[in-house]
């Protein structure tokens, strides 16, 4: 036997559904209904930018050593080592510190040749390569580094990078300029909007700098005379962008 309370509850729910559908159709109510609330902002945010152009004070030169068709792996190693050692000595002689010279990417590998007769690969010799990176805080040594490296056996100039040794000093100046710029913009906006500025509630900064200036190998090989190639460091831009949040009175 069906419980009367269940039937009663079912009839009530059915009645509510029918009445609801009637009201929606009668008054053309769209559904689902979304309620939105808005909140008036009590802050004014302003973005300011500061830029400082800096002449790079550090140069890094990457020179390459490549040898081919050495008869044995030890012979390939000896050829690379001889050139590497000559380059290092040449760098010291022009005033580069030992700790600013680094050898990397050192490799020796067989030169494989396929034979149609035996249908097999065989070793015809050994190739080798290495990179010597030379760093200097004397920009005027850059051309001498390139010239000295090529004269002592380097057969690749892989690139020259100019950078700033201590960018944070200039980044602070850029930040100060960005904050001053943001405050000026905020005062101008407040005046135009007829509001008064309160205290700064938050500061968000994003800073960056122009990537190191890189000269490709084909450019660095262009001779500027007996003293080596003529290379200029140019300038590097260090920037800061700040967002200031002010209370509105």
UniProtKB/TrEMBL annotation:
<dbReference type="Pfam" id="PF04402">
    <property type="entry name" value="SIMPL"/>
</dbReference>
<dbReference type="GO" id="GO:0006974">
    <property type="term" value="P:DNA damage response"/>
</dbReference>
<keyword id="KW-0472">Membrane</keyword>
<dbReference type="InterPro" id="IPR052022">
    <property type="entry name" value="26kDa_periplasmic_antigen"/>
</dbReference>
<keyword id="KW-0812">Transmembrane</keyword>
<keyword id="KW-1133">Transmembrane helix</keyword>
<dbReference type="InterPro" id="IPR007497">
    <property type="entry name" value="SIMPL/DUF541"/>
</dbReference>
<feature type="transmembrane region" description="Helical">
    <location>
        <begin position="7"/>
        <end position="24"/>
    </location>
</feature>
<protein>
    <recommendedName>
        <fullName>SIMPL domain-containing protein</fullName>
    </recommendedName>
</protein>
């Amino acid at each position: 036997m069906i419980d009367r309370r269940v039937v009663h509850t079912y009839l009530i729910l059915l009645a509510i559904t029918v009445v609801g559908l009637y009201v929606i159709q009668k008054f053309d109510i769209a559904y689902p209904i979304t309620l939105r609330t808005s909140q008036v902002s009590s802050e004014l945010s302003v973005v300011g930018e500061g830029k400082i152009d800096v002449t790079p004070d550090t140069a890094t030169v990457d020179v390459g050593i490549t040898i081919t068709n050495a008869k044995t792996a030890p012979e390939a190693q000896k050829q690379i080592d001889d050139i590497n050692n000559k380059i290092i000595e040449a760098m010291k002689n022009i005033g580069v510190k030992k700790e600013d010279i680094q050898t990397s990417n050192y490799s020796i590998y067989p030169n494989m040749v396929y034979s149609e007769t035996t249908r097999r690969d065989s070793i015809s010799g050994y190739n080798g390569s290495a990179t010597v990176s030379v760093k200097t805080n004397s920009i005027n040594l850059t051309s001498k580094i390139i010239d000295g490296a090529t004269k002592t056996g380097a057969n690749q100039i892989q690139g020259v990078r100019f950078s700033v040794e201590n960018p944070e000093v200039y980044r602070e100046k850029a930040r100060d300029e960005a904050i001053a710029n943001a405050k000026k913009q905020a005062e101008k906006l407040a005046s135009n909007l007829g509001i008064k500025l309160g205290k700064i509630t938050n500061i968000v900064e994003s800073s960056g700098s122009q990537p190191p200036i890189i000269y490709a190998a084909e450019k660095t090989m262009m001779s500027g005379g007996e003293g080596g190639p003529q290379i200029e460091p140019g300038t590097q831009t260090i920037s800061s962008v700040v967002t200031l949040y002010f209370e509105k009175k």
